[in-house]
Protein 1
Amino acid sequence: MEQLGVAVIGCGSVARWKYGENLSALDGVSLRAVFGGAAEDFRLRYGSGETAVCLSLEELLARRDVDAVFVCTPNRSHGPISLAALEAGKHVLCEKPMAVDEADAAAMVRAARARGLVLTVGHQARFTAAARSLRRAVESGRLGRPYFARASMVRRMGIPTWGHFFDPAVQGGGCLMDLGTHALDLALWLLDDFTPVYCCASTFRGPGDHPTGANRWGPWDPAALKVETSAFAQVVLSGGAAVSIDTSWALHVPRDREETVTVCGTEAGGELFPGGWTLSGVRDDRLVTRRICLPEDEQEANRAQLSDFVDAVRRGRDPLVTPEQSLSVARILSGLYRSAREQRPIIW
């Protein structure tokens, strides 16, 4: 495949930030079509004379010059749009979450495997230099046998006040669906275990009823807020490891704790932080912690995932984020929300 024709479905902020600014860095990739709100602006800014603005999803998926699509629409539509694209013979990179409905996620996996198509989900956190370095340390046995992970995506006061974030009918949930998706995927990948045995969770509105200008994006309307602003959970995996999850848009803690995942093994522990990770253990009867700094620019992980997707399409191989792994994340998220609603553990 000398030239890969791609299309963007949904041309909002995520599409502009992740795809618009990085597609031009990929060799042999051409933006052939766009569809959705602000599509014309997206074409003018990131496209070329070959880029078409489609008036319907059907029109875009019928184009023979489109080999792969990037799905950047609101959460609820991820499943139906990705499934339609796969059924039309297109490779798919869908933004997280894979789907808000586990059945939709399972249908996506079946469709991709039946047609021999590449399907992956936008968990770009795996592609940071720090995450890859920690993963290599785990694989090499440097931490011993991993048995615990803590997945944290905590904001002190960062409730998103735009778009559909407050509407569960569109987004499928609040902070757990928005932030927990990334943290959970990263923890499971570092542990190399995507098979849950049971889980339990609690969700809270927290400070959601007390709007404040101290919020990162300004005050909000509490009456419009229909989702959780914090969620806390525990998942036990088939290999025996436990994963603790804490996510929030608003939580009265001293500081943010975003993109922080801790993995503990029998010999040492590793904890990601923006720009690196720490290795903590014991040496000569002394507690030691080593800080490994791996600076990278904000877009490096996005470009790396796009490159991985394009290479997977060209070579007919699985991407780093496999569809089955993303299905497991969707299954666990569904179980966590069910546990919170029913106030009981969920057993698979």
Protein 2
Amino acid sequence: MNNLPKILVLGATGKVGSETLRQLQLAGDSQPIAAVRSAEKAQALQARGIDTVILDLEQPHTLKPALQGSDRALLLTGYSVDMLRQSKRFLDAAKVAGVNHIVHIGASTAPTNEVAHWGWHQMVEAYIEQQGFSFVHLRPEAFMQNITGPGYRWLDGNIIRQYVGNARWSWIDCNDLALVAAHALREPEKYAGQTIPLGYDAQTFDEVAAILSQVTGQPIHAEARPPEEFLKNALAAGADPAYMTCVYTQFKLNGEGAIPHADATFDNFDSITGRPPTTWQMFAEQHRDELTQFIQATQNS
């Protein structure tokens, strides 16, 4: 009989969720279960030997069967104000199902009340605690993968179009976030009750462009654009207006230097994972071929 703890991972086909699953599978001391919204999405994961369940946060009837038997869960939500309703719905169902430990992926730990979606994540954190779960709150800063996607991306050809002017940001590789999430899920007795900020390399977009240029040999430049352009484009693409207005506000305040500690970095990664965090130099070297191909393809498209 398999007595390994069952860990349910939401966002199982996304950047962070899929890597969290891979790390759990590599460790081999738990039974990871991928939560997906359709049988089609489950197929690739099943081919890797990962158990799957159908769970759609917009379909309440899917929660009870998906949560059945799970001991721990990774909670992450999409880029919509619906995250508030969805998170409460999931947590209420998880409580009834007997889930003990929740690792929640939130947002920046910068001390401001002006960026609403950061506050939404903190409200979810408070609800997790109020419901009596064992918990770990993860608060990542800006994702390095947003340079090329998938999904939203900054890089277009050899131009990084950005909306925060000369602001210096704290950055994290999504794979580093996933590795910390895996440890927090595997070792609740070690990390329970902690709020862990995650950001390890502070760089402006001009500095990021210089690093990418040096590593790839491609002339890459950062171009500051007005944040109003970001909001217009995001809404035209059909993104959630409430959430994108939050992001617009963040960009605007970043550009004005009004986000406290936006460039804060932390020294917790080595002690959690046993290795140094990924810097922009390391990220560029690891993804040199991919970045070069991406730049050339988008230049020619």
